[in-house]
Specification:
Layout (H helix, E strand, L loop, with lengths): L6 E7 L2 E7 L8 E3 L1 E10 L3 E8 L6 E8 L2 E9 L4 E7 L9 E6 L2 E7 L7 E7 L2 E3 L1
Amino acid sequence: MRWGAAGLAMILAGTGLAWQHWSHGDDKGKIFRTSTAQVTYEVLGSGTSPRVEYVNGPDNQQAMAMHVTLPWRMTLSMPVGLAGAVADMTAAYPDSGKPVTCRILIGDRVVRQTVSDDGFSDAACSTVVPAMQQK
């Protein structure tokens, strides 16, 4: 199936939806598929944060942890669609009056890190979790 010089077609691959981009020449195109990613949210600091908010699933579903003792860590399997997914978190400033750091890891790799400017500011991190390329 082809639409113009470079087309886009939806195909069913195994149990997941996938898409392939076709073009002229030697380019074989790329196929992407739905998958899951291990996403870890971390809040580094001392004291207690009043709340940590984070995305925990498809369609940007939100979760909140209250009165969190720092450091804090949450790992989850996040569904990743063809357009990718969003990992997002906000950590409220702790009662220690010291800066707080938020980190997002995909697998074991830190992909985003933010440090609050002072001990009275929230720290927020956000990143796109890319769709998995199928070989």
